[in-house]
Design brief:
By secondary structure, this protein is an alpha/beta fold. It has one domain (7-80). It contains four helices and three strands, in the order βαβααβα. Strands 1-2-3 form a three-stranded parallel beta sheet, sandwiched between helices. The longest helix is centred in the last third of the chain and has 13 residues, at 68-80. The model has no long low-confidence stretch (mean pLDDT 77).
């Protein structure tokens, strides 16, 4: 991933490693609706870096957002505006 311009991560521990290396990543998790609701009841975000910072450091695609159209949209947005 260090040689790529952008990455999607499914594992929360990898998000922490990528942020430590300043690699641009988005978080991707495909939960069932009851799992997502229960998780969002306690946390506003899925990955640990967003939870610890209490801010949206990495964009997240959760549940119904985790499909190829939304993933391609995020990749195009990052290509046009990498900030």
């Amino acid at each position: 991933m260090a040689s790529s311009n952008f990455g999607f991560i499914y594992d929360g521990q990898m998000v922490s490693s990528a942020n430590a290396l300043h690699l641009p990543v988005n978080c991707l998790i495909n939960m069932r609706m009851h799992q997502q609701w229960f998780h969002d009841y306690y946390n506003r975000w899925w990955n640990d870096m967003n939870i610890i910072a209490d801010n949206s450091i990495n964009k997240e695609l959760i549940g119904g957002e985790a499909w190829f159209g939304k993933i391609c949209e995020q990749l195009a947005e990052n290509y046009i505006n990498p900030n």
